[in-house]
Amino acid sequence: MTEEDERIAYAISNTFVLRQPKQTLSTFGTTNIHYYLLTKPVYSDLLDKGGNMDETVVREGRVITERPKVITPSYLFNLEGFSKHARKYLELLAEKYGPNAPGIFYSYKNEPKDTSIVSSPMKTVVDRINKEIDSNGDPLSTIIKGVDEMWDVSVMKFIYEVTENSVSHHVNEMGSRGYFNTDRAGVPQGARQRIEEMFAMVKSGELEPPDLKIEMDRWGLFREYEDRFLSLFR
To answer: Cα–Cα–Cα angle for 180, 86, 73, nearest 5°?
Structure first.
């Protein structure tokens, strides 16, 4: 294990959610989670040998989770950014479950906002933020205790656990609507539904046509929708 691996492992094992969001991730929409990540300053051990430094780093931001997408191993092959090792894994998935076996794909965006150093012990800061969240009545706020120098790992651990707790609910809701049913082309109904929504978004100006074409290309469906797509420009 490399030194970086050890630091990541340390951050994972020392990250704790002190306040969970009161809602799970949305199945059919975007979820916007407001987080407060609290850490001990990275310099505190060097400056305070007695361990009595009462300072807390507060990072505030949002994690935005896009609407879960129904995908297949074949679809993933058409996404950019995968290494040869990741693609080998996809080949194994396709071999084991079939190239058109439906699954759920999640995408996230982390938007850090403010960072401040508060001259108070962490427990005091947690109590204050809890009262603030209660006052605002935000069901999608969370408080996380993490590791200062690997704070983004702490955020990722949090969102992974939130996703893990939401998967079974999403599978049930999507399954009840037939989203995992595949047609003769091996395309899940959920993917067809997504394309229909994207056509509507392009017409309303909420989405650029190239984004729609990219999605159709990933499913190998552009020729099927080509005339309808070109009609958007007439």
So the answer is: 20
In angstroms, the CA 196 to CA 100 distance is 20
Give the number of other CB atoms < 10 A from CB of residue 178.
11
Using the predicted structure, report yes or no on whether residue 87 has a pLDDT greater than 80: no
Dump pLDDT digits (tens) for 196-215.
999 999 999 999 999 999 99
pLDDT digits (tens, 9 = 90+) for 123-164: 999 999 999 999 999 999 999 999 999 999 999 999 999 999
Lateral strand order in the sheet of 141-145: 16-19, 141-145, 31-39, 56-65, 108-118
Work out whether the CA dihedral 112, 160, 98, 28 comes out positive or negative: negative
Matching residue, tokens 């205790």: 145
Please, what is the average pLDDT of the chain?
A: 90
Long-range contacts, 2-11 (Cβ 8 Å, 24+): 7/149, 7/150, 8/150, 8/153, 10/147, 10/150, 11/146, 11/147, 11/150, 11/153, 11/154, 11/157
What mean pLDDT is predicted for residues 82-87? 71
Residue 46 CA, distance from chain mean position: 35
C-beta separation of 37 from 155 below 8 A: yes
pLDDT, residue 95, reads 87
Question: Do residues 201 and 207 touch, judged by C-beta distance below 8 A?
Answer: yes
